[in-house]
Records
---
Amino acid sequence: MTHKIAVLPGDGIGPEITEQAQRVLGALGMDLEMTVAPVGGAAYDLHGHPLPPETLSLAQGSDAVLFGAVGDWKYDSLERHLRPEQAILGLRRAMGLFANLRPAILYPQLANASTLKPEVVSGLDILIVRELTGDIYFGQPRGVRTVEEGNFAGERQGFDTMHYAESEVRRIAHVGFQAAQKRQKRLCSVDKSNVLETSQFWRDIMIDVAREYPEVELSHMYVDNAAMQLVRAPKEFDVIVTGNLFGDILSDEAAMLTGSIGMLPSASLNASQQGLYEPSHGSAPDIAGQDKANPLATILSAAMLLRYSLNAEDQAKRIEAAVASVLEQGLRTGDIYEDGCQLLSTSAMGDAVLKALR
Ligand code: IPM
Ligand code: MG
């Protein structure tokens, strides 16, 4: 059976890192049909829209999407609906990619890369499960309006709407509990239920779904405290489940604990195993085209793609072992370089992973 993969390189370093991931996928000896299409600012330049209909339908018709990164300062002055970020938001919404899995793992070989003390982060292995298609990100109404009454009457006001429907909370709760079941069986739900109605509702549903998973220990934490605990004692966490906005913020924080955001993959899944796989880092336009970006997060995203969308666990493990092997050999791109290691370019790192695969 041929598996269809849409490859959307995007902007900045996106093309050079996805190229390496494609090479790795191509070397597995699987029957993969990879089709490349523009997205983000690159698509805007070509077609006047960050998510052209051809790119969207290619993605929708594929088993999985391998995504690079979008965004560049040069598009910051465009109207919101034309900005590169709208491509990723549009793909999430159109494909129903509600479950975002963001692992934050500290590789033993990179223990010194973190800005935190080694004893705080060594062995770190946490998984953030972020709801990705609801919350204030997509809530309506939103916009700018004129205040009718009260203190600010007559003034313009910017506003967004936070809401979660019960089914939205339930389905992400199940993803969180099932992920925890396969790990240390501890799930921490992060909310702001001391202030927000949406969060109180979220918490109530989490508690209800927990009855179906008696072997998983559910705890709750306010998001401000979670932000603090993540830097104080991150190893206390196993799986975190949270809403779209809090998950956006906490997943960047968690990624940086490892000091090597260039190593972290992510998966965004819908209910039918279709997924979009992308590195956790952004498009880094400042180093684009210089062959110095770290392709490993994208290569590891390809491993997640094999695991979650193609049910090819063995092949996923092969890639992950190859990445561990290049680190073990002391091979590094600039972002994770330390004394005594060998500095490689993006493409040379791709070569090294390919060699380790064989
Ligand atoms: C992320 C990014 C996106 C988000 C942006 C690019 C829209 O920050 O994937 O975390 O806010 O979800
Ligand atoms: Mg983010």
Note: Residues 248, 252 surround magnesium ion (ligand 2) (CB under 6 Å).
---
Amino acid sequence: MADKIRVTVWNEFRHERHNEKVKSVYPDGIHEAIAAHLRTQPDFEVRTATLDEPEHGLSQEVVDQTDVLIWWGHVAHHEVQDHVVDRLQKAILEGMGLIVLHSGHYSKIFKRMMGTSCALKWREADENERLWVVAPGHPIVQGLPERIELPQEEMYGEFFDIPEPDTLVFISWFRGGEVFRSGCCYYRGKGKIFYFRPGHETYPTYKNPEIGRVIINAVRWAAPVKGPEITWDNVQPLEKLEK
Ligand code: ZN
């Protein structure tokens, strides 16, 4: 890992170009709103990438220079090429962090890393969302109050078909009655994955400083560590084995 944490913010970037309502909330794209939080951190090196760039902006060179990848997608998950997904999976298993946001629950890379359907309930009804911190000692909640209030969001409800998280950091409540595991940590190989629920494209959620704080903290948590080189396959014993 370099001295700085190298973050790539990936966004599908379709709603913001084709939907006037979304464009008015995120005129420069969701990726730029997220990147604006990250750029306040002097030890982060931030770049963005979008679906319609060659190789979706995720060439082998870019992936090799990424410590943590942030993912926002919704209507075009199927357009992400499988060879790029293979490349990302390999990088994650070798230590790259992955932060999957909101509708990214149905992205190819998240479903690949989870191995389940990642299905959930949803409703767009301008409900308020209350995210409760349920892991108060976790690095992702550094500097947060015990709950985050979002005045309007899309509802996501349980059952969310994901593997049991290694650590559950947030649970969301919605006015309509549903609850949701909205901050989920996983280890996969040498890599770390954080799923974070909020961020429907018609609401200014990514301009909320507490949401920005969570994403900054998640980048630090998910960044690779200089761990040991691992030895695989057939090995010699460390002690003399006598019969
Ligand atoms: Zn949504």
Note: Residues 209-222 form the longest helix (14 residues).
